[in-house]
Amino acid sequence: MAIIDHEAELHRAGANITGWRSQLVFTARRYPLGAVGAVIVLTFVFTAVFANFIAPFDPTSTDAKASLARPGGVFWLGADFMGRDMFSRIVYGARISLAVGLGATLMGGILGVSIGLMSGYLGGAVDLLTQRLMDIMQSLPLLVMALVMAAALGPSLENTIIAIAIPLVPSVARVVRSSTLSLREQPFVEAARAVGMGELRIAVRHVLPNTLAPLIVLGTAQLGSAILVEASLSFLGLGIPEPYPSWGRMLSESAAEYVRTAPWLVIFPGVAISMTVFGTNLLGDALRDILDPRQRS
């Protein structure tokens, strides 16, 4: 009897795997651009996680003899003016971009969710004051506010994450607030109050989970924006300092002086930034269509 049950478990597990594969193939065919975006993002994440095994050289080691070496041979993507391998620096730069992008998105998301949930659920004076503060923060563009924050905090990995996370808060707070305003009037909230459940527990356990679908889409879009802003800050010298290999800093070091004599120093970091942001945008658009039936064509 135990053998039969074990075989039945294996059969059900195989059926579940087959079902997931079929669903994945169906989703990829229905949203091909989203599938392309997912492949780009997964490649980016894989490169960042396994950078130690992918990169053939230490990204910070210099070799004067290899200064401005052309792509090919030992240096697949060439070498910079200090003889550092460009391929290794771009691979390790993916790790920096992923750390900053995820860190800023998560920090901004947690703060925004807390503020938006409190503002939408409590309403009244709390909602009024909170939304005026969000209006002030949104009066400045994302990059401008990040520049102000980065200049005030100074260049470092942690400060760059904070400088990018704070400007992301208002958009998250507004999305959560708008969802909370409609959800707090729903019958399941009234039923929870009727059985004596506390307001904080209702907000966290019943209202918050119903706001996650738009947050996933927004978080994907903000991940790409955070990566792009980090590259911009590093390009201006306010982001990730040396010796960390940042894509934006690579452009800053090479764009003015070597763009004509060694164009690969500008092309490859620029392609890495563009492809990563492009992939996150494609994935975000697909997730929007999948999670929101009203957006489906």
From TrEMBL:
It is found in: Cell membrane. The keyword Transferase does not apply. SUPFAM superfamilies: MetI-like. It comes from the Bacteria. It holds the Pfam family BPD_transp_1. Keywords: Cell membrane, Membrane, Peptide transport, Protein transport, Transmembrane, Transmembrane helix, Transport. GO terms for biological process: peptide transport; protein transport; transmembrane transport. Its main location: membrane. The chain crosses the membrane at residues 31-55, 96-124, 136-154, 215-241, 261-284. GO terms for cellular component: plasma membrane. Residues 94-284 form the ABC transmembrane type-1 domain. It is a multi-pass membrane protein. PANTHER family: D,D-DIPEPTIDE TRANSPORT SYSTEM PERMEASE PROTEIN DDPC-RELATED, OLIGOPEPTIDE TRANSPORT SYSTEM PERMEASE PROTEIN APPC. Belongs to the binding-protein-dependent transport system permease family. This is Peptide ABC transporter permease.
